[in-house]
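sry for the spam today, last one i promise. struct tokens for design, 174 residues
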């Protein structure tokens, strides 16, 4: 029986090495080379290749996120994510008004920046909503309250204006 050198280091696999699991050989996944490309930025074409439930990338504010592990946990349902998979989901993300907690979860899925090239679709939104900056008083809810208060103030002013005019007319006729 030949002696085996237990101290010899095992070489680390490279992305181009085939993957061996349970005796079957597989080619590396489409995302295997993406980790190295993420530092320089992923192209929109690369992101578009990742639109399946088990391999789902989304772009939000020109950053690429791997939402694959979150599809089943998304409170809005998996179809919401699958509809924007492999695309710019900025507008859909901001229209919902996600919480600070949702934004923290999103940061945990960050792969890297989007590398825009000629012919790519234009960004759907340019700046994060006020919720992303930590200001919880802005956004759609703030507009609704402000509008409500403005309408209420106008109604109160109109009522007292009408009462004033009625009082003036009453003093003229006597």
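last one done:
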């Amino acid at each position: 029986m030949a002696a085996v050198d237990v101290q010899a280091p095992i070489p680390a696999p490279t992305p181009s090495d085939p993957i061996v699991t349970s005796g079957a050989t597989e080619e590396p996944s489409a995302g295997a080379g993406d980790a190295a490309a993420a530092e320089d930025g992923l192209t929109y074409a690369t992101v578009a290749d990742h639109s399946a439930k088990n391999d789902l990338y989304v772009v939000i504010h020109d950053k690429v996120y791997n939402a694959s592990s979150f599809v089943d946990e998304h409170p809005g349902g998996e179809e919401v994510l699958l509809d924007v998979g492999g695309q710019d989901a900025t507008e859909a993300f901001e229209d919902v008004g996600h919480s600070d907690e949702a934004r923290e979860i999103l940061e945990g899925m960050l792969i890297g920046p989007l590398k825009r090239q000629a012919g790519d679709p234009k960004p759907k939104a340019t700046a994060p909503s006020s919720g992303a900056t930590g200001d919880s008083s802005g956004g759609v809810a703030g507009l609704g309250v402000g509008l409500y208060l403005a309408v209420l103030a106008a109604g109160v002013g109109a009522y007292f204006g009408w009462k004033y005019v009625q009082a003036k007319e009453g003093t003229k006729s006597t």
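The longest strand covers residues 55-60. ok im logging off now
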